[in-house]
Amino acid sequence: MRTDSDGTGMEIVHLLREVTVELALTQRDFARANGMHATDVRALVCLLDAERSGALLTPGELGGQLGLNSAGTTSVVDRLQRLGHLERLPDAQDRRRIRLKVSDRAVTLGEDHFGPLIRRTLDLLGGYDDRELAAVRRFLTTTRDTARAHGA
Question: Are 125 and 133 in contact (CB under 8 A)?
Answer without folding.
Answer: yes
